Amino acid sequence: MLSKFILSAFLILCSQLVIAKELVVISDLDETLRMANVEKKFKAGVKILTGVKVYKGLRSIFQEIKAKNSEVTFYYLSNSYRFLYNGDTWTAKNALPKGVVLQRGIKDKSDTFKTIKLKEIVGKHPNASFLLFGDNIEKDPIFYRNIIEETKLSDVQVFIRDARLIFDGEPNMIYYQTEAQITDDLNMSEATKSYVENLSFHELVPHFLLENLKSRIRKSCQGTRRFCHQLAQRKVREVAETIKPIP
Q1: For residue 6, is it within any domain?
Q2: Between β-strands 72-81 and 23-27, what pairing exists: parallel, antiparallel or unpaired?
Q3: From CA 195, how far away is CA 62, in angstroms rounded?
Q4: From 30's CA, which of 6, 95, 102, 246 has a CA 20 to 30 Å away?
Q5: Between these two residues, 16 and 134, which has the higher pLDDT value?
Q6: 114 by DSSP, 3-state: which?
């Protein structure tokens, strides 16, 4: 009788246990985590020499994801060549969760490297939940859309930094100008939300992103040089006011 009771209690306990699902975080580096100014190649090269800062908001989010999930694997996937900078060294120096850093080699093609590596990562974690982070300076949204369609990923969320500040994006992806806009989507704690919201504006949106936007507006403008300059200045001010976190 006692053995039946013990067995019954054991089965009830087992039925109540929740097995944590594996979580995989895949993140681009340049302009997703690194304030690299990759839209301007020369300036990006100078930044590599002088030191590239981290987006503190996303770092804080990643740190909380790591603290809250025992079954989480981080991948940092970049089209940047390793000879330009060492991703392992940079992520460690900037206190990002330890993960696998994958950077392009000389023989790797920029249009296929990320797709190949994404397919390999998904293959290694067939039953995982995925969080994908990128930006819209280059082709992250396309790479992520293609891998989701090709591998039939269903348990996945995609977050794209709107580094071009155009307020438009792919369907089924969450575009953000500052990390303060995605803390609820990621179920962040009040401590992390408060930290992100209290970062200075240019820690959330580097000055060079606004300058790049201004430059693009001027180039597309059909008016006089003075008119185009004034138009660009006004639109950039409007963008900055729109995305500034509410104090």
Answers
A1: no
A2: parallel
A3: 13
A4: 246
A5: 134
A6: helix
Q: Residue 163 and residue 30: Cα distance in Å, rounded?
A: 11
> What is the C-alpha to C-alpha distance for residues 204 and 190, in angstroms, rounded to an integer?
18
Q: Domain total for the chain?
A: 1
Which CATH number characterizes residue 30's domain?
3.40.50.1000
Q: Could you tell me the pLDDT band of residue 43, with boundaries at 50, 70 and 90?
A: low
- The helix/strand/coil state of 125 is coil
Q: Which two tokens stand for residue 234?
A: 């006004």
Count of CB atoms situated within 10 Å of the CB of 216: 15
Tell whether the torsion through CA atoms of 135, 137, 141 and 142 is positive or negative.
negative
Question: Which amino acid is it at 108?
Answer: D
pLDDT above 90 as % of the chain: 82
In the predicted model, is pLDDT for residue 2 greater than 70? no
Phi and psi at 69, nearest 5°, equal -125, 110
In a domain, 127, yes or no: yes
pLDDT of residue 22 exceeding 80: yes
pTM: 0.89
Residue percentage of the chain with pLDDT more than 70:
87
The CA distance from 175 to 158, in Å, is 8
Residue 213 lies in a domain: no
**Partners of 96 in beta bridges:** none
Tokens of 19: 């097995």
Can you tell me the distance from the alpha carbon of 212 to that of 76, in angstroms, rounded to the nearest whole number? 25
What mean pLDDT is predicted for residues 154-165? Answer: 97
Range of the domain at 137: 19-200
* Position with higher pLDDT, 132 vs 11: 132
Please, where are the H alpha helices in the chain? 2-16, 41-50, 56-68, 87-93, 113-124, 140-151, 190-197, 201-204, 207-220, 225-243
Q: Residue 215 in 3-state DSSP?
A: helix
